[in-house]
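Annotated sample (chain length 135).
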Amino acid sequence: MLSLSGYGQQLKKSIPAVKYGNNPKAGKYLATRGIKLYYEIYGQGKPLLMIHGNDGSLANFKYQIPYFAKHYKVIAVDSRAQGKSEDSSSTLNYEMMADDMKALLDAMHIDSAYVIGWSDGDINGLLFIVGYSAS
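Output written by the structure step:
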């Protein structure tokens, strides 16, 4: 017989109490390039930009944010037209979203950052790095 007694309690303890993606204390908007880009900041140290995948939000990083925030200044962002970011345009492409990441870091006066992304966030991150690493 297999007993899972107590397993549910351990699982509940591992779920973050912070409402990532909807945290008024950490969340801000940047009005840039005709949109309102939503982002949240956690921790201190070298900047670490986190970019989620298609049809997601920064809340997708709810397990990664607290881990990395112990050593980095985590900047988790909702990509254009996703999560809490606002965009009424009918045009959307990877280059635009990479430009949005550049605008965000420029507004924060950050000239260098680590980047983590998955799925479309990975593509946006790669385009951002390739497009702006020499500038």
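Annotation: Residues 18-132 form a domain with the Rossmann fold fold (CATH 3.40.50.1820).
Annotation: Residues 1-9 have pLDDT under 50 and may be disordered.
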